[in-house]
Design goal:
Elements: H1 2-22, H2 31-40, H3 49-57, H4 60-71, H5 74-97, H6 102-115, H7 123-158, H8 164-177, H9 183-190, H10 194-200, H11 205-214, E1 217-223, H12 237-243, H13 252-261, H14 265-274, H15 291-297, E2 330-341, H16 349-354, E3 364-367, H17 369-430
Antiparallel strand pairs: 1-2, 2-3
Amino acid sequence: MVLGAILGAVTGPLIGGAASSLFGGGGGGGSSAGERTAEVFEPQEDEVLEDFVDNAFGLTNDVVNRGNLVFNNPERTAGAALSYQDFLNNQLSGVRTGRQGPITAGLNLQNFIQSNNLFDTDPEKFGGDLTQIQREFDKVVVPKQNEEQVRRAFENTFGRAPTGNELLKYTGRLEGGVPGYDYGQLVSDITQTPEYKDTFGDEGAIGKALDIYYGDRIKETVPVPESEQQEYQRPSLDAIRKRYGLGPDFGGYDVFKARQAGYSDDEIVKYLKQNPNYLEGKNVAGGENDFIRRLQDGTYRAVDEQGRGQVPIDRGETPDFKYQAGVGPTKEVITSDREYSFAPDNFTNKSRRLAGLKPIEDFTFTGTVAEIQDFQQQRRDERQYLYNSGLTSLQGDIDKSLQRIKDAGRERLAVIQGQYGMVAGLANGFFS
């Protein structure tokens, strides 16, 4: 097929061009000669043009064969098929560990398959492997990312890790329980919780800015009404089994969510020993992936080496799926008061008393934001009044001092003038 394309593209222009240039295709005088030579070079019905081109231009077949050997080398394809599984496992491992995303891994695998002509050998297998990378990402990486988002949101907001119930609640929303749910909505939901309002007040982020300006808010421990107190209650393992995963069996994703809820592996093992019929396939006792044995030995991870064990499907809450956060008898809340600290000024208590102002002994003020703002304005007014009073007093002192200097100068001048007159009179008496 390649050879035919080359011949079709080459023979027509070359033969026509050669005949035209050699035998005078242009000009009136050459037309009869061209017609005579056309008869000589007219291909016969059984003549093979491929042989003609090979004889005329040399190594066409050899070039085509070399090209076919490069792109369709059976030995190369066979070698790539032997190393294919290792290459695929390497790409899957990169996705699981976060070294690369599913798009990069998919493109790497696609390039390996196409460049080695593997697809045509088994289209169903290699086509399935290309989609496996995205499935692996959704199955292994996405649940971990959702859990990490919830942990990060709680640590950034409250400075603590989320409880098991909080993990179940918010990862469920990220996993499709609420369409389009993302990190921004997660943080927004957290800011609407009673704990957030107890911790930061109704002002929220604005309150943080006010803290920076006015000082930290004051916290106090207050009693929780008995009717509002409640113990931490996690959903039962049976309720977790009914809600998560593909079917009613207890599988890898159920273990993942049970651990989030705060169950230990020992508690899960106890539950499975009491209900062995909830294990299916290779997970049954004595099976290849014996769940109970692996949980007891501590060899079960969130996902095994082949990526099996998790199907991140939330089938929705059942009537028996209940969880609640613990609320103790007391809790810490902020008051509406803040403590405002200010530096002393250089006005003495004496000057304040003379001005009719109360001396300041404690350089802190506790009150609401409005009270603090009013106090600050009072302080500004006081300082302005004392400053203006000080200038007036100073000006009066300066004027008095100048007057005293003037009076003393005049008195001194009169004395000097009197002494001068006396000396002048004596001198005239001596020399007259």
